Amino acid sequence: MEFSYQERLLSRVVEPASEPVTLAEAKLYLRVDGSDEDTLISEMIVAARVAAEQYLRRSLITQQWKLVFNTHAPMDVFLPMGPVQSVVSVVTVAEDSSTEAVSSTLYRLSASKREICFEQVISAHQVEITYGTGFGDPEDVPAPVKQGIFAHISEMYDGRSRATALPDIAVALYFPFREVAL
Question: Which of 22, 73, 116, 121 could form an SS bridge with 127, CB 3.0 to 4.6 Å?
Answer without folding.
Answer: 73
